[in-house]
Amino acid sequence: MFSSVNSMEWIIGVGERTLVRVQGMGHMFLFLLRAIAWVFRPPFRFDQILKQLHFIGFKSTFVVVLTAIFTGMVLALQGYYSLQKFGSEGLLGSAVALSMIRELGPVLAALMVTARAGSAMTAEIGIMRITEQIDALETMAINSLQYLISPKIIGALVAVPLLVAIFDVVGIYGGYLVGVKLLGVSGGSYWSSIESAVEWRDVYGGILKSVSFGLIISWVCCYKGYYTKMSSEGLGKATTEAVVLSSVLILVWDYFLTSVLL
Amino acid sequence: MITLKGVEKSFGKQQVLQGVDLKIPTGKLTTIIGPSGEGKSVLLKHMIGLLKPDRGEVWVDDIDISQLKDRALNDVRKRFAMLFQSAALFDSMNVFDNVAFPLREKGLALESDIPRVVEGMLERVGLVGAGHKNPSELSGGMKKRVGLARALVMGPEIILFDEPTTGLDPLMAKTIHDLIRSMHRVFGFTAVMVSHQIPEIFGISDWVAMLKHGKIIAMAPSKEFQKIEDPAVREFISVNEENIVQV
Ligand SMILES: Nc1ncnc2c1ncn2[C@@H]1O[C@H](COP(=O)(O)OP(=O)(O)O)[C@@H](O)[C@H]1O
Ligand SMILES: [Mg+2]
Questions:
Q1: Which helix (H) or strand (E) holds B159?
Q2: How far is the CA of B41 from the centre of ligand 1 (A)?
Q3: Cβ-based neighbours of A5, under 8 Å, separated by 6 or more
Q4: pLDDT tens for residues A36-60?
Q5: Contact at 8 Å (CB) between B22 and B199?
């Protein structure tokens, strides 16, 4: 039996927690809007944007190439095993390429960027918060969102799609290595099946995904760093939360986009 | 003139400032003393709009900055510089670039003049040739001095110094005090300093104020402050003098 007082308290508790959540989401959303608005106001910080492109993009290339090649290789193994049952090993190229371009390239590259660059972004901004470097910027009449956050968002919007493109190409080549060189599928049919199966809208969907993942990563990771609580535990917590939230959002948003794009 | 009227500030359940009334006279060096954790740093941050009061007003001349946002607040901040208690150096830049940063950002000096200006400032704080070092390679005292150089180089109207000499050896503390005093004499900026350095601060300050239990409990010209009979003031002064002797 519920006592009515207890259930009242329970309902109020749920209501309060919901309000806090909704408020938190609004707060996050405002943060993004303000950071984006600052992109269009002078001074334009091209040097900061270049630095971010280097950090998010160039420095993630190695880990992206590494994961891409193994993903392509394992896709070829699995695909060969399934397709062989129907005697259609010739379609291996298209199976690998479509899974790469439509799904695995954007998602896996984005998850790798989150782990490598996203967590570092949160830590960097969080340390600047804790050690009052953000306050120091503000006292110099420099807007910290414009100086710190906007370049990271732009950097991620540009770098993530490029990394995804690299992931796709390397992954397809990894599939070629295993499928053609190891398992003996004909090279000609591997490439021609890709050419005939992959359509422009597959590529377009992949680009759309990768751009939105870039936004999610930079948004979530910058937000968590910017509002780090003033302690070293706060920093660890912020970094963990940033990686978890941005990974979850990437997967949820991926499902949503896929269902719309199909 | 910076004027605080009934400023109250809480963090969660902890009420740090409980109605601060304070007038900082223009062109003078005012030192705020008081026990650790009483909210002296919080008080300074209110003067430059880094923190907003829960209640009360913060006036810089004829502007209530507790109501200002973004651009209007930045216009006021352009008249300030601040040395943070933690120094707050940018750890992505070396010492030289830290000191040059406000000059470049605010366009206060030609790029060709910057090396001369920055090196000159580093010399004054006793850091000749340290320009290429990264903040992580510096001791606490050196960081403080770089932070001081970064604040002074802007040549602002108002400078806030949060414990400029804490963590320095007595000789370096004296050098820094002399530097602040002489820069103050030459440039006539309004200075607000937080410090524990008793009795030295009485020698360099024009005014002294004491913060305790979230309020300003005493403020007087430096000479008169030392004669104040209030037991809390007497106790603070004597305890800090004893500490100096023990060191
Ligand atoms: N941003 C903040 N968030 C939460 N608490 C704070 C913050 N800044 C200061 N405090 C608290 O306010 C009190 C006064 O701090 P502070 O002004 O640094 O003291 P001090 O007089 O030593 O400079 C301390 O208890 C500190 O923990
Ligand atoms: Mg302090």
A1: strand B158-162
A2: 7
A3: none
A4: 999 998 888 899 999 999 999 999 9
A5: no
Residues B68 and B146 in one domain: no
Contact A160, A207 (CB under 8 A): no
Please count the other Cβ atoms lying within 10 Å of the Cβ belonging to residue B55: 13
Angle formed by the axes of helices A200-226 and A232-261, nearest 10°: 160
CB A26 within 8 A of CB A126: no
Q: Do residues B127 and B149 touch, judged by C-beta distance below 8 A?
A: yes
CATH of the domain at B34: 3.40.50.300
Specify the length of chain B in residues: 247
Compute the C-alpha angle A161/A134/B67, nearest 5°: 115
pLDDT of B172 reads 85
| Structural domain that includes position B196 | 2-79+157-246
Q: Give pLDDT tens digits for B56-88.
A: 999 999 999 998 987 899 999 999 999 999 999
User: pTM of the entire structure?
Assistant: 0.90
Q: In this predicted structure, what is the pLDDT of residue B244? A: 55
A135·B102 Cβ contact <8 A: no
B229 and B162 assigned to the same domain: yes
Q: If we measure between CA atoms, which residue out of B30, B23, B8, B22 comes closest to residue B194?
A: B30
Enter the DSSP assignment of A144: H
User: Average pLDDT of B111-118?
Assistant: 93
**CA B181/CA B231 separation, integer angstroms:** 29
Measured N-to-C along each axis, helices A92-99 and A150-176 cross at an angle, to the nearest 10 degrees, of 170
ipTM above threshold 0.95: no
* Pocket mutation for ligand 1, best pick of B42, B192, B215, B240 (most atoms within 8 Å of C-beta): B42
pLDDT in tens, B32-60: 999 999 999 999 999 999 999 999 999 99
Q: Give, for B2, the enclosing helix (H) or strand (E).
A: strand B2-11
Structurally, chain B folds into a number of domains equal to 2
> Are A139 and B91 within 8 A, CB to CB?
no
Q: Is B136 in the pocket of ligand 1 (CB under 6 A)?
A: no
B50: amino acid identity, one letter: L
Tell if the CB–CB gap between A138 and B77 is shorter than 8 Å.
yes
The candidate with the shortest Cα–Cα distance to A94, out of A36, A6, A154, A179, is: A179
Does residue B188 share a domain with residue B147? no
